[in-house]
Amino acid sequence: MTKSTPVEKRPYLGKDDRKKALLNCAAELVEEAGWGVLNMSALADRAGVSRQLVYQHFPNLESLLGATAWVVFTDTMEGTAQAIAGHPDDLKQAIRAAELVSLDMPVGRGDALWQLIAGSGLNSPELETIRLGIRDVILKLWVPAVRKEKNLDKAAATSLVWMVILSFWGIRQLIRDGLVSREQGIAQFDSLLDRLM
């Protein structure tokens, strides 16, 4: 007679704590392998729970993607808002402070956020909707400050903000890929800011 190995039970978590744990697992999946891997089955496997439990917290893939995108984006958004608030009369310093928030995030989180900002490799209408929402949040953070500093109309300020955002993320990718050092990337981005601002 052989003894079977007892199955380790997952710890009991309350509803809010379980949802938070699932979202952390979902963010880890995306940070490791991109948005294309995230679905109910992959999350259940990663979290060691049933798909039924995942569906209890996220009724569909769209809600899971949206909640995960928010988890990936929240720290950066909060850091950016603090950078703007910390430098209300110096837009270049606010941008430089926000730059460090994004440069200091873990590589996988930065890659996941870059995919959302740039729309690269998303391949789903749900993620496209989320991408547009994140773009709107970013613009709402920066456009008022740029309009005030540069005395631009809303359309011109929006264009300038988005060009600066994409320029920053382009430099971040070069730093990430080792094509330029962090110091070189920061210096080049600062030079661009000096010309634009």
Automatic annotation (TrEMBL):
<feature type="DNA-binding region" description="H-T-H motif">
    <location>
        <begin position="39"/>
        <end position="58"/>
    </location>
</feature>
<keyword id="KW-0238">DNA-binding</keyword>
<dbReference type="InterPro" id="IPR009057">
    <property type="entry name" value="Homeodomain-like_sf"/>
</dbReference>
<dbReference type="InterPro" id="IPR050109">
    <property type="entry name" value="HTH-type_TetR-like_transc_reg"/>
</dbReference>
<keyword id="KW-0805">Transcription regulation</keyword>
<feature type="domain" description="HTH tetR-type">
    <location>
        <begin position="16"/>
        <end position="76"/>
    </location>
</feature>
<dbReference type="GO" id="GO:0003700">
    <property type="term" value="F:DNA-binding transcription factor activity"/>
</dbReference>
<dbReference type="Pfam" id="PF00440">
    <property type="entry name" value="TetR_N"/>
</dbReference>
<dbReference type="GO" id="GO:0000976">
    <property type="term" value="F:transcription cis-regulatory region binding"/>
</dbReference>
<keyword id="KW-0804">Transcription</keyword>
<dbReference type="InterPro" id="IPR001647">
    <property type="entry name" value="HTH_TetR"/>
</dbReference>
<protein>
    <recommendedName>
        <fullName>HTH tetR-type domain-containing protein</fullName>
    </recommendedName>
</protein>
